[in-house]
Amino acid sequence: MKFILPFILFLSLSQFISAQENCKVLLHEIDSIYIGKCKKGYAHGKGTAIGKDSYTGKFTKGWPNGKGTYTWANGDIYTGGWIEGKRNGNGKLTLKLADRDSILDGLWKEDMYLGPKPKAPSVITKTSIERHSFQKLGKIHNRVLINFLQSGGTNNTITNLSINATSGEETNLGNSIGYEFVKFPVIIRVSYATMNKLNTLRYQAIFEFEITEPGDWLVKLHN
User: Fold this and answer.
1) Domain holding 44: CATH number?
2) In terms of residue numbers, what domain contains 79?
3) Domain tally for the chain?
4) 191 in Cβ contact with 162 (< 8 Å)
5) CA 106 to CA 9: how far, in whole Å?
C-alpha cells in the first residue's frame, strides 16, 4: 500500500507535465514553462508562463490577453491590461532603477505609454437633479451635448434655460443642447426651471460639472 500512493502521485505529475508541454505560449520571452489552463493546445484562461521573463494572468489562444502581471529579468514589473501579448488599457509599470523605482501608471496602447488615466467627469453643483450620467461617445468631436429627460422621455417642460461654458461654441443637435470645439478641461453650468413628474409644481434645477478628458460627451439630466 505504501508503494501505491507514490506511484499514483508520480503518474499524475507525469500527466500534468506532459499536458503543460503540449500547451503553447506564443510570446517567446515566456515560452519555456507553462502552468495553467489550456484550450486546443494553447494557453487559454488563467495561467503562469516562465522563460527569460515571467507572466501570471489571463491568456487567450497562447497570448497574454486580459489582466496580468509581467516581470522582466531585470526586475521591471507591469500589472494591467493586455491584448495579444502587448500592453493595452489601464496598467502600471514599475522600472527598477539603481537608486529608486520609476513608475508609469495610466493608459497603454500597443505597448506604448499614452499618459496618466484622465480624471472622470466631476460634479461641482447639483440642485434638484434626480440623477445624471456622463457618456463618452466613440466619435472624434471635442463636444459636450446635454439631454434633458423626464419619465423616460424628453423633458418638454423646461423654461428659462441658461448654459455657460469655459470654452466652445453653442450647438444644437435634435433634442440635445451643448458646445462644440471645446477645449478640455471644460466647466459647464446649466440652470433651468422645470415641472415635476406630476406636473403640479415648477422648481429650479442647477447642474455644474467639469470634464477633463477630450472627446465627444453626452450628459443626461433626469428630473
Assistant:
1) 2.20.110
2) 19-115
3) 2
4) yes
5) 45
